[in-house]
Amino acid sequence: MNDSHDPPESVEVQQFGPASNQPPPTSWSAPPAWPRQSPAGSPARRESRGLGAGSVVTIALVTAMVSGSLSAAAVANLLRPTTGGSLNEPSGTNVSQVHIDESSAVINAVARVLPAVVTIASSSSTGANGIGSGLIFDSNGWILTNKHVVNGADQLRVTLNDLRIFSGRVYGIDTLTDLAIVKIDATGLPAAPIGSSDDLELGQLAIAIGNPLGTFENTVTTGVVSGLGRQIRAGDSSSQSSEQLNHLIQTDAAINPGNSGGPLINSAGQVIGINTAVSQDAQGIGFAIPINVARPIMKLALAGKPLARPWVGVYYSLVTPQTAAEKQLAADHGALIEPSANGASGVFPGSPAAAAGLKDGDQIASVDGVAIDLAHDLGALVLPHLPGDKVVLHILRDGKVLDVTVTLGMLPANP
């Protein structure tokens, strides 16, 4: 957390989810999607993309995610998790029996999801072709993948698990995360069971499925959930931009270039995340976007609506007891609206916050009665909403207590 003399660390329009309590590592490296063919005239540049020492490169370049907390809003409880029978824990202490039960769990889980995993080959007029993965989440040809797998592509070729090939089109790009929706003209397809990422526990089984290196289709790797709410600093393969990814699932299940957009699943065969980033400077450190972050855009796509994320429109710093004491704030929690690093007002002109009369120095203590703290960031609390929804912000201002109703707007693509 910044001290009282530093600019605010959180930007409401540019980051999703609570920031990690730990400083982000600085040595992540992973190329976006696995290139199949180098652009004409620049093979060397493509050959080495994203592998510089100490650089932060993602298998998932996230739109509008820099230092800050995004008050994005979406739809909660969408695509309700598939209810499946729970897997029995081994009743004995025999190690061999435990291994057998663990293997059976993985086999059964993979069998539920593998038919819905697809390979997405992209091509563009620039010659920058690539291969990534995707997940069928609805039987009528709706596919969830990473934005960078499809962004800028002129053509998409989607290969199903049964080897049928379809032309795909990008239905929409998420303005909040590195996610995208692809549509193919097909029906009766196998759809993956969608789980929940809200109640994950450290150490639970995690299984990654995808197309690593663009060659080894339907590869299955296993590990555990190694961390939650992770934050990393990441850049594109050219190191020309740098973004901050937050609220990620960390796993030691092997994730490689080409796994982009593939599912991370639990032992019940339910999707809990979309694989998105990997460190090539270390072993056993990969990241996935929680599936509950993807739920809203999946629901919007199925309803035939444009992909949209709501926002409040403020720069703010997350208040802790320490910063509250340093700045003599009225409460030891909340989101403090402060000017941006360049001195501009912390309330974006024309934003929902401006329309509601929010001001620099306002301390947003809660959203709809739920206190803002390290576990419940402003962005996370408005996530279960759509643009146009109303939320009540409990505001502390100059010794006064106000309840302000804000009508959430639509997050701009480049706020």
Description of the structure:
Helix content is 13%, strand content 31%. The chain has 415 residues and is an alpha+beta fold. It has a single domain (1-415), classed as Thrombin, subunit H. Strand 9 (205-210) and strand 10 form a beta hairpin. The longest helix is centred in the N-terminal third of the chain and has 19 residues, at 95-113. The relative contact order is 0.19.
| Helical amount | 10-25%
Which CATH class is shown? Mainly Beta
The major beta sheet can be summarized as:
7 strands, antiparallel
Q: What's the structural domain tally?
A: 1
pLDDT < 50 runs, ≥5 residues: 1-9, 13-96, 236-242
Reading the helices and strands in chain order gives EEHHEEEHEEEEEEEEEHEEHEHEEHEEE
Number of strands: 22
Strand content: 25-35%
The class by helix and strand makeup works out as: alpha+beta
Q: Could you name the CATH topology? A: Thrombin, subunit H
- What's the N-to-C terminus distance? 23 Å
- What form results from the Cα inertia axes? globular
What does the radius of gyration come to?
22 Å
Overall mean pLDDT stands at 77
Q: Architecture, CATH level 2?
A: Beta Barrel
> Helical element count?
7
List the SSEs and their pairings.
Elements: E1 10-11, E2 34-37, H1 43-47, H2 95-113, E3 117-123, E4 129-138, E5 142-145, H3 147-150, E6 155-159, E7 165-173, E8 180-184, E9 205-210, E10 219-235, E11 242-251, E12 263-265, E13 271-278, E14 286-290, H4 291-302, E15 310-311, E16 315-318, H5 321-327, E17 335-337, H6 352-355, E18 363-367, E19 370-371, H7 378-382, E20 390-397, E21 400-407, E22 409-410
Antiparallel strand pairs: 1-16, 2-4, 3-4, 3-6, 4-5, 5-8, 6-7, 7-8, 9-10, 9-12, 10-11, 11-14, 12-13, 13-14, 15-22, 16-17, 17-18, 18-19, 18-20, 20-21
